[in-house]
Amino acid sequence: MAGTIAGRHPHRTRAFRILFSHRHLHHSQHRVEFALVDFSALTISNPDMPGSRIQTRLDDHVAGLLRCRRCPRMESTPVSGGAMVSDVILVGQAPGPREPVLQRPFAHTAGKTLFRWFEESCGMNEATVRSTIYFAAVCRCFPGKNSSGGDRVPAPDEIRNCSSWMNDEIQILKPRLVIPVGRLAIAQFIDCRKLEDVIGRRFPVERTGHRFDLIPLPHPSGASPWHKILPGKQLLERALKLIARHSAIVDLRSHRPMGED
Ligand code: SF4
After folding, report:
1. Alpha carbons 77 and 57: distance in angstroms, whole number
2. Which of 92, 99, 151, 181 has the fewest CB atoms within 10 Å distance of its CB?
3. Whole-structure pTM value
């Protein structure tokens, strides 16, 4: 793992050695392995941003996010997928009513479809996706219902309020791949008047001074049949293929975390 990513992310090389070293060891060997790791050397030899500092910054970031109460009209507190250091960020729209209760994003029906897409195209099940990809969203709190009973679309001021959290995440993680899910999420990065124009394509994007690839997905909720009928069905397949073949995903798949053997 370290060798694979060293060229592109030299500052993360040592961090990955630590995170996944246990996969190659029997549990009885863990104590020995950790005794061999020199954490102080990590900080000194990588003044740019060593892996341990990325994790610390992300831990602090998520703790701050969970305390956020900037938007008075939101009907829940923030939902986070956890401080997962990753080269890939998945950006949802906003949690529904169940996510705040279950305390994780994409916890209900839309999540089932989303994780099935990842399983079928990338060979990554829900546990693997949740433990290797960082989950962000346009808004992190449940906006409540609209007058027709559907989930309220976050207002522009709420989207603006919440965008600083995503900017900070991009600054901390410097992802190679961002996957926005649904029109509202896609529109935070590129023009998205028609899904047909953006699904199935990869876009080079720059945000907060960092460049990454953007591969948009349609929203997996049952509310829209777009991804089930042509041309959406075919474009979705193309998008999932692009994601499966992206080097950031290939690296995640070849170094799956504990529990996937
Ligand atoms: S939507 Fe975002 S900015 Fe608004 S209160 Fe929730 S976490 Fe904070």
Report:
1. 21
2. 151
3. 0.81
Look at 224 and 63; give whichever has higher pLDDT. Answer: 63
* Strand ranges, E, within the chain: 88-92, 134-137, 177-180, 203-207, 210-214
Edge-to-edge order in the sheet of strand 134-137? 134-137, 88-92, 177-180, 210-214, 203-207
| pLDDT tens for each residue of 74-98 | 999 999 999 999 999 999 999 999 9
Contact in structure between 124 and 252 (CB atoms under 8 Å): yes
Domain annotation for the chain: domains and CATH numbers: 1-40 (no CATH), 44-254 (3.40.470.10)
Q: How far does the centroid of ligand 1 lie from the alpha carbon of residue 39, in Å?
A: 35
CA of 150 to the centre of ligand 1 (A): 20
Residue of 68, 69, 151, 164 to test ligand 1 pocket, by largest number of atoms within 8 Å of CB: 68
